[in-house]
Amino acid sequence: MQFYNQLKRQKQEFIPITAGEVKIYACGPTVYNYFHIGNARAFITFDVLRRYLEYRGHKVVYVQNITDIDDKIIIRAQEEGMPFNEFTAKYIHAFQEDCAALGIKPPSYQPRASEVISDIIDAIQLQIKKGYAYELNGDVYFDTSALPEYGMLSGKKTEDLLPGARVEENTLKKHPADFALWKRSKPGEPFWDSPWGQGRPGWHTECVVMSRKYLGETFDIHAGGIDLLFPHHENELAQALAMSGKLLANYWLYNGFLNIEGEKMSKSLDNFFTARDILHQYSAEAIRFFFLSKHYRSPIDFSREIIDESERAVNNFYSALKSVNYLKIVAQPNDSYATQEEAFIQAMDDDMNTAKAIAVLFELTHQCKNVNLPYSEREQAALMLVKLGEVLGFFQNLSDRLKETLPELSQELIQLLINYREQARREKNWALADQIREDLISLGIELRDTTEGCIWTFKS
Ligand code: AMP
Ligand code: ZN
Question: What pTM did the predictor assign?
Answer without folding.
Answer: 0.88
